Hints:
mainly alpha, 2 domains, 7 helices
Amino acid sequence: MMNRIPWQDVLSFGPKDLVKILVTALVIVVVTKVQVFSDRMSALLIALPFTSLIAMVWMHQEKQSASRIAGHAEGTFWFVLPTLPMFLILPWMLRHGWTFWPALGANCLITIGCFWLTVVGLRQFGLDLMPK
């Protein structure tokens, strides 16, 4: 799959891409600024699928097909699921003496494992999230 990605196209940036970067970065900056005042409000904002919505708007603006946008939305659903344990395990670790970086590193490894289990598990049901 990785060898089918046209990296020269992915890594070339034009004016539209700069607008996308600025709008997307603005969302992240606003959420991190809200976090200073309310961790729960920033959590709510980040839980909203802003990045997915923005990505789908950009896909639509670039005239990508409804099928590709639908595939993106469906893939996002399945790939969100393996990230959810991190949002319970990380706070537990931090509250039980783990320092930030080791806890974050452990959670990255756990999430990678959950991704792998999700991909392998869904293949058993005919859904291939990572086609070869």
